[in-house]
Amino acid sequence: MLLHGIGSSHRAWSPVVAVLAEHFDVIAVDLPGFGESPPLPVGVEPHPAALAGAVANLLDGLGIVAPAVAGNSLGAWIALELAAVRPISCLVLISPAGLWPGRTPLYNRLSLQASRWLTRRWCRPLSRLVNHRFGRALLLRQAVGRPSRISPDRAREMVWDMASGAGFDATLEATLDRHYLARPGFDVPITVAFGSRDLLLGRRSRHVEQLPPGARLEQLAGCGHVPMSDSPQAVAALITAAAHQAFSAAP
């Protein structure tokens, strides 16, 4: 199961789905309030644990037990919360959000709010601007390590997803005063990977010691915050290795 980040959709995983599907059944979801999924019901705050509850309900409805779960950014935080409430074979956390002390750092919040404002106000002009290499370099450098290499079509998807997610504002607000808190007895294999060119998550947002013990740390060379677009083969290899190891060890 693949979980995207805030201001995104299942399409964030499109560069790796075909490779993963050679080995596994793959589900890339639209989290509540993003892509084609409606927001959570009125009155339910879309914090990571609540979003994890929605994913757990989806898994129950599909009859899926103990999947391998990969998440990017907020999706990685949701994956951690999901593993606290139901069986998970392994977690692959790519550029995980929530590993900061206290509140969401100001830079992270302002960067996301600026991206949201720009794409909502000028979605059509920006969708044309990404036809040009300099336009992709200008708009996508917060998300990817080599934005000029991203295809115009993929860049347009990223602009549209940031602009259109109905749950963006409420979800961002619900995370501002939170960070990930590991629970006692957590026993799920974890692989954590950060892109070497991730401009969104600085040192202050990478407190991996907040994770349960035993997490394996990797670096994705030349990749930004959303490395599936930068190096799909490397991301697919990371997920494949972790899932194969977990499934082979299962009773």
From TrEMBL:
Xref: InterPro entries: AB_hydrolase_1 (IPR000073), AB_hydrolase_fold (IPR029058), Carboxylesterase_BioH (IPR050228)
Keywords: Hydrolase
One of the record's GO molecular function terms: hydrolase activity
Highest taxon of source: Bacteria
Pfam family, one: Abhydrolase_6
Domain annotation AB hydrolase-1: ranges: 2-237
Name of this chain's protein: Alpha/beta fold hydrolase
